Amino acid sequence: MVITDELLEKKKRNALEILRYFIGFCNKHGLRYYCAFGTAIGAVRHKGFIPWDDDIDVQMPRPDYEKLMGMRPEVENDDYELLELRFTPGYFAAFAKLSDRHTTLREYESQHVILGNSIDIFPIDGISSDMERYRKDYLLSQKYRKRLFSLSEIHDWKWVRLKLAQFHPLAILKYLEVCTGRTAKRERLLKRMRKLETAHPFGSTGMVANYYLWSSYDRLCMPEEWFGKGVSGSFEGMEVMLPAEYDKVLTRIYGNYMQFPPESERVSTHKCHYIDLDGRSSVGGTAVEGGAKA
Predict the structure, then answer these.
(1) In 133-214, where do the E strands start and end?
(2) Which residue from 72, 81, 121, 291 puts its CA 20 to 30 A from 259's CA?
(3) At a CB cut-off of 8 Å and minimum separation 6, what does 246 contact?
(4) Averaged pLDDT score across all residues of the chain
(5) All residues at 6 or more sequence positions from 14 whose CB lies less than 8 Å from its CB, including other chains
(6) 187 domain-assigned
(7) Is the CB of residue 281 less than 8 Å from the CB of residue 290?
């Protein structure tokens, strides 16, 4: 769907309030976090959102991430909910989201889990110091990520009839395979993911990475010391934490991140099938009144 400028600004303001709550909780409980990816670039280059971006990403060392997940009852309240694979049925991302209960966001038509407008919370994992071993682990993580997304998809018979009419036998086989024993397959996959994530505990090798981003594997691995205790920065007037060596981190991932991309590329790349920032809607196969539909 196309998000209007007015809706984009409203979405940003809402995300800022979620971030404010998240930072307050982390500061209160001594949890480490860092602004990540486009949010980190925004903090350094714009002191806030990249003008054409509309989401907020943070990342946490795996020990702090796990502490946050374990504190879910304390994190959640009437306004916010914490979403993660281990306790959110049908959830499809290999990282957590802190979501506004009073909004609705459906990123993909085939994903029927109801979310609110959210910030993304990525774990930073320890990795092997052997780069060939890490490369294989990263490729395996991408296989798991894609598999997880497929197991979270829900297609109705209208979709099946369409694929039959278009003669997509592989798509039909995929649908039948996913729908057979979906829960058991998902549980087995989560165990494999967990084994990969804990193979090299954070701090044990001096090297870290984010397994579940889609990028060149060598851009995502870096020395743990580049993160450290972090340094403060500013994001839309809010004090935030950045990696201690944020310039090295961002340069490793993006190259010359201070250079603006061509105007044709200054658009949001995030998916949004349906959004309602004024309430939580029970969105099934179609959108309901009060929201915007693709």
Answers:
(1) 207-209
(2) 121
(3) 34, 40, 44, 231, 233
(4) 87
(5) 100, 103, 117, 277
(6) no
(7) yes
CA atoms within 13 A on the CB side of 138: 23
Query: Residue 117 is part of a domain; what is its CATH number?
Result: 3.30.460
The pLDDT-based confidence of 182 (bands split at 50, 70, 90) is confident
Owning domain of residue 78: 5-125+210-285
As a whole number of Å, the end-to-end CA separation of the chain is 4
104 in a structural domain: yes
Q: At 110, is the secondary structure helix, strand, or coil?
A: coil
C-alpha span between 22 and 42 (Å, rounded): 18
Q: Would residue 291 count as lying in a domain?
A: no
Question: Domains in the chain: how many in total?
Answer: 1
| Torsion 245-270-75-88 (CA) sign | negative
Amino acid letter, 197: E
**The pLDDT value given to residue 152:** 72
pLDDT range class, residue 177, cuts 50, 70, 90: low
Q: Are 211 and 194 in contact (CB under 8 A)?
A: no
**Strand residue runs (E) in 107-258:** 118-126, 207-209, 222-223, 231-235, 238-242
Residue 17 lies in a domain: yes
Angle of helix 131-152 relative to helix 182-197, nearest 10 degrees? Answer: 160
Using DSSP, state whether 293 is helix, strand or coil.
strand
CA 27 to chain centre: 21
